[in-house]
Amino acid sequence: MKIAISGKGGVGKTTIMALLAGELKRQERKVLVIDADPSPHMAETLGMKDAQQVKPIAEMSTLLAERAGKSQGSPFYNLNPEVNDLLRDFMLEQDGIRLMILGAVQTAEGGCACPENHVLRKMLKKMLLTADETVLLDMEAGVEHLGRGTVAGTDCLLIVTIPSRSGIRTALKIKKMADDVGIPRVYFIGNLVQGQEDERFLEQELGEQALVCFPDSQAVRHAERAEQAIINITKGIKRAPEQLFKKLFAKDKGKAI
Q1: Neighbour-count burial for 157-177, b at 16+ CB within 10 Å, e otherwise
Q2: Coil, strand, or helix at residue 241?
Q3: What is the fold, at CATH topology level, of the domain defined by 2-49+92-103+131-250?
Q4: Cα separation of 22 and 231, whole Å?
Q5: Is it the case that residue 256 has pLDDT exceeding 60?
Q6: Which one of 82, 91, 138, 232 has the fewest CB atoms closer than 10 angstroms to its CB?
Q7: Model pTM?
Q8: Where are the chain's structural domains?
Q9: Burial, 145: exposed, middle or buried (Cβ in 10 Å; 0-12, 13-18, 19+)?
Q10: pLDDT one-digit tens code per residue, 170-195
Q11: Alpha carbons 242 and 185: distance in angstroms, whole number
């Protein structure tokens, strides 16, 4: 299964993705995590060794330009760049979890970076189509990635929101665009939920019940502030990762719900 996650900035999507990765590992599933956020920090959240030394592929501008066949002053670039060796050489692995840090090309100062982004999209598509493990795709905040169709190859999109009107507005916009691009399964995930009142608010404003609600966890907050790995946290989260795993992989006529 290929699972993408999105939501308004700051709602905790990377945290939830890391906790799901930890639960998949406990369930003895092979896991590939793809960090495609413009400000990637999944390596730290997963507790990867030397995480701060890892450079996102999107920041390797010379390498990406070469793969795109981009020459100085030329408007043309390679429409089918070779990426297989990049997938092999820039993959991290630790404790049974593989991580690819894509990042995203920043173009505000440098103008259009279409060739470089083309290489990144080719890498992402290759991983989504060929991976033989459960893939967790941490996308950038907001809805831009859906507008570009970069999650079209996923089986499922998790939209994280907190019990706030701004978070819910973004979540509903993402849901509409996800339906428009034809993602087969789209679910809301509540985060920083403090009780039944928050759950009822989410259900009322979203128009449906969240698949799972993650509590407002002191353990997660303390780990993040101390720059500690979140993946192995089990206390103070009310078995939410386990519930999410079971609901995602529940069998319904041979398919996950």
Answers
A1: bbbbbbbbeebbebbbebbeb
A2: helix
A3: Rossmann fold (3.40.50)
A4: 5
A5: no
A6: 82
A7: 0.86
A8: 2-49+92-103+131-250
A9: buried
A10: 999 999 988 888 889 999 999 999 99
A11: 19
